[in-house]
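Morning!

This is the sequence you dropped in the shared folder:
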Amino acid sequence: MADKRRLSTLLAWCTDIGIHIDSRLRLFESSQGDIFVRNCSGSYIYSPTTLVTIPKRAVLSARSCGLSVDIPLVPYGHGALLGLSLAVYSELSKWAGYLQSLPQTAVRIALLWGSDEVSVTDEQD
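The structure's back. Tokens below.
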């Protein structure tokens, strides 16, 4: 049974950090603990409608964290992953509401659905 506080913690974090979610959208948590979004307005939402507004302070990167002066700018590869890991680690308390909502297991990437060449275990390596 999933911890039902995950969703309420995530929504409280979104409110605290200034993320606005369109009132036509609802977030739900399944019995397995997955969090998903649905359009509950009963009508089609046309493109290019803005559904979520995310302020800059709600974006975590190696350049925006408290340790940014100590993390070298590396745009890709292992160095970039290490930099982001340090950023997340340095901001754990601020980002706890978001981080606790992330899946506990590997999530299949939609682009790769149906691909015989990639499996969930490949993504974890």
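Headline: The mean pLDDT is 83.

More detail when I'm at my desk.
O.
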